[in-house]
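Need a sequence for this fold. Nothing fancy.
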């Protein structure tokens, strides 16, 4: 690898930051801002300096570094390598061209005993010059940094006056190999291999391969983002699916202008393919950084909350989970479908706030094996992140054992457990003040709602969700407004912590119908009364001027 650094450009320098940045507060999943904001002089450097001054074990430690390939990825890797060398890391593990999915990064942190990892991604947000960029920090367990650490990093950003960096430029990472920058070793690895090996350890890939070779055509959409190389290696090279199974499989800096968010709105090409009668039996897509998944069958869409419940109910069909699950967890807004399965299996089910970081302690202390969120995120104890391709393989493993259609599997599940009709309505990019007013107005109404009737039922709980971590007893208040009804229905209101334009209001709706009821309604119809009630209670359309949500899941 042709990297030669002269003594001159290896000099460690201190760069002054004229005034500290005050807008570097990490949200639900790292620091996420517009690409242009990240290009402001010293902006990225300042946040990385705060991380390196706060993360335990930096001196002589190992760091994992990569990203989803969006615009700014390569330049950020160059800056972070020079800053890592200036801060005394002994080793950085990065990947060819810096392409690294979030779950693969989590795995690398764990197998290399790294002190942490930096993933350059704004996940499902669009990329390119007009899009977003982001920095996610993961801790030594491989999971998103806990709030205590990100709070400390944020305070540090407020009084930074300089950062430490080496002058060396143009570091070449376009092939595997090793080189030194000053005293620090840089290992450039393939990035995909270790992840594929991990999947080998979890699944019976031969059985999935057999399914794919026997008249079971699948389509996978990488949305021009990070999972392309992983999916091609996995589905086409290893499992023998035909070439072309992986669509949009080359990571592009602007994701080809699309929004790398695997839902019915932003992955509409794939959705149409499956829902409008093509020959495909199964379809899936992942987001920008590869931690989310969307599952489709011929003519049907699997709601992520149902997906979590179905994976849990069928986990014995996967070699790695054959001997049973320690427990399961879901984020608070996720539907209670998985709770019913956990009850049936006699295992614990935990309810955490939104964001993967809250599953970390439960996974580390072996209280849960599988966990998930309504936002297309599912994962297990194999890493400390949600894992898109793992979820796709999990589905294919179940189908390879049961030899039925996705629609049949869904019906079978509802016939056993009943159906938790569920939908999330997102009102994106609304004026921040309007969004906050809607939220605080409903919050102030909550105490007066208890015992009031709503949708032929009455309100039993109306509060702002507060979470006490069962492992370290830390308390995280203010995690979303809950209105719970006596018939098990739920309405949740949250403000997004990942958007970058204005504010995004999320409304989550759930209604349970037992297995003797009507199990095959359109969710929007089944939830109609709840949808209308919350709109009139929260005055959403009236205050936003929007007559429909931007995205309905
Ligand atoms: C959203 C989802 C949340 C998820 C987070 C990060 O957060 O709702 O469930 O954990 O994105 O996902 P919010 O605050 O916008 O609702 V990802 O794929 O960015 O790592
Ligand atoms: Co993501």
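Here you go.
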């Amino acid at each position: 690898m042709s990297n030669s650094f002269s003594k001159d450009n290896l000099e460690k320098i201190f760069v002054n930051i004229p005034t500290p940045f005050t807008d570097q507060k990490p949200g639900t999943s790292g620091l996420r801002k517009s690409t242009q904001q990240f290009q402001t002089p010293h902006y990225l450097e300042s946040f990385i300096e705060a991380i390196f001054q706060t993360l335990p074990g930096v001196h002589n430690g190992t760091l994992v570094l990569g990203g989803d390939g969006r615009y700014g990825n390569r330049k950020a890797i160059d800056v972070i390598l020079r800053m890592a060398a200036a801060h005394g890391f002994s080793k950085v593990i990065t990947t060819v061209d810096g392409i690294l999915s979030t779950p693969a990064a989590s795995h690398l942190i764990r197998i290399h005993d790294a002190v942490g990892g930096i993933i350059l991604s704004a996940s499902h947000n669009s990329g390119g010059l007009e899009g977003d960029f982001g920095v996610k920090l993961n801790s030594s367990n491989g999971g998103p940094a806990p709030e205590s650490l990100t709070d400390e990093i944020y305070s540090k950003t407020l009084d930074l006056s300089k950062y430490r960096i080496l002058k060396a430029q143009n570091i070449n990472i376009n092939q595997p190999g090793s080189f030194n920058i000053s005293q620090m070793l840089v290992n450039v690895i393939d990035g995909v291999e270790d992840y594929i090996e991990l999947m080998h350890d979890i699944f019976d890939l031969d059985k999935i391969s057999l399914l794919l070779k026997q008249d079971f055509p699948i389509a996978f959409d990488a949305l021009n983002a990070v999972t392309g190389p992983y999916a091609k290696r996995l589905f086409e090279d290893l499992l023998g699916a035909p070439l072309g199974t992986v669509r949009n499989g080359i990571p592009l800096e602007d994701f080809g202008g699309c929004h790398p968010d695997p839902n019915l709105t932003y992955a509409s090409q794939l959705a149409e393919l499956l829902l409008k009668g093509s020959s495909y039996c199964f379809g899936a897509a992942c987001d920008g950084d590869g931690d989310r998944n969307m599952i489709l069958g011929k003519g049907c869409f699997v709601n992520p909350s149902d997906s979590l419940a179905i994976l849990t109910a069928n986990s014995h069909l996967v070699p790695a989970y054959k001997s049973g699950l320690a427990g399961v967890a879901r984020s608070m807004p996720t539907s209670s479908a998985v709770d019913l399965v956990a009850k049936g299996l006699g295992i614990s089910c935990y309810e955490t706030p939104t964001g993967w970081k809250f599953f970390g302690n439960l996974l580390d202390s072996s209280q849960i094996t599988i966990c998930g969120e309504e936002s297309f995120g599912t994962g297990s104890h194999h890493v400390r992140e949600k894992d898109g391709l793992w979820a796709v393989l999990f589905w294919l493993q179940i189908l390879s054992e049961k030899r039925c259609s996705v629609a049949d599997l869904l019906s079978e599940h509802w016939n056993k457990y009943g159906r938790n009709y569920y939908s999330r309505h997102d009102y994106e990019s609304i004026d921040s003040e309007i969004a906050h007013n809607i939220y605080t107005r409903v919050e102030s109404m909550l105490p007066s709602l208890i015992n009031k009737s709503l949708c032929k039922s009455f309100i039993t709980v109306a509060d702002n969700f507060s979470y006490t971590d069962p492992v370290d007893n830390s308390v995280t208040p203010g995690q979303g407004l809950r209105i719970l009804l006596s018939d098990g229905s739920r309405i949740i209101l949250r403000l997004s912590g990942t958007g970058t334009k204005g504010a995004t209001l999320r409304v989550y709706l759930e209604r349970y119908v037992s297995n003797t009821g009507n199990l095959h309604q359109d969710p929007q119809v089944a939830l109609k009364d709840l949808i209308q009630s919350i709109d009139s209670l929260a005055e959403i359309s009236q205050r936003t001027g929007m007559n429909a949500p931007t995205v309905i899941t």
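For context: The CA atoms of residues 421 and 436 lie 28 Å apart.
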